[in-house]
Amino acid sequence: MVENQIPVSPAIKLSGMRWVMVGMAFLATVLNYVHRLSFNYLSAEGELRKLIPDDAFGYIGTAFFAAYMISNAFSGFVIDRLGTRVGYSLCMAFWTTAGLIHAFAATPLQFGICRFMLGIGEAGNWPAAIRLTTEWFPPHERSTASGIFNSGSALGAVVVPPLVALLGVNYGWQATFVILALCGYLWLAAFWFIYYTPKENREAEKVTFKVPVTALLKTRFVRMFTLSKTFMDPVWYFVTFWIGRYLVDVHHLEMKQIGWLAMIPFIIADVGNIAGGYFTQYIIKRGMPIPRARKVAVTIASLIMILPLLAGPFVITTPISALIVFGLAGFGYTAYTANTLTFPADVVPKNSAASVWGMACVGTGLGGAVFQSISGIVLKNNAAEMGYHYAYNILFLGFGLVALVGLLIMLFFMGPLTPDKSLLRYTEGARS
What we know:
ACS family hexuronate transporter-like MFS transporter; two-stranded antiparallel sheet; MFS; MFS_Na/Anion_cotransporter; membrane; 432 residues; MFS_trans_sf
């Protein structure tokens, strides 16, 4: 039986260094998304588009998310065992190297293998960043800290289109992957030099207690949170993975145009990361209990994500209106994520947070793998006869309904965001 070594949570002493540390997690998340999305834009047109049709692109996306699912099953535990410094560094080294070898791929199968390896490494970013925030931030600041580091996902998505357009057009797609990998290795060197665990956490780790994985899996929170993410998170991957092809297929834009226009939804989404965290912090300061505040914020954010998708087929008439729909969906998702990143630390012992997030993200990988393949099949089977506009409308409606299912699971089946009573005996045992 695998077990998780959990220290008793100490009182966190506030230090200005906590903003430097969450800044490093923010930069890592930017690089995570730059590596993740660069292939999607490079393959939207030109040489790679001819090599990789819609169904193959969907299957390659499935390879990434299958690996993401597998990795999330153990990455949180690995990071909890190794610690933030070693665990985060290991993840960055693995996914950066996986990104580098994209430059040497030449067939859909080879790209699928590269994407699989990338998914293995990239899954560790969020458990590592969550552990970092729980080490450096008190509970009332964690939604803000989570919003800051997670905004790197949207900023990475903002940076990728113009960056890929610039590098790809001028230097080719192979050189683009090499240059992006060099950026990852630079972060790795800086993080290894800068990061340390706060003293009070090092002292706490001298007193450990064991929370079995089976005990975590038996909690309703872990099971239902995982299931909800299976339905919620694929919406973000529809936006980030398919927007480049959508703009080419439906609105007939070229890469140079996409490079600048595709930034718009992700600029809007980036605001959601910060707004989601600050809104929760605001209503907590106004007197709303933390568990209720988190769920209120998540509900509002989820509706901001869902409603534009359901309306998309009826309101999109131009590229700009499409970008607004994508942007609102992204804003809602990132505001939702800024709050859900704090869920594990609210329910389970502090140093189980990374492990539980990894478990929940198995749902992310499963949903991503299934719905990426479905997206490719829907486009292949409908675009030829009905046109791409009709085929993508199916996806807008489908992802809106799928996310609604995820929200209902979270609200009615996940349970309260308070310490799970079944795990209290482990913390009590550590204190005795």
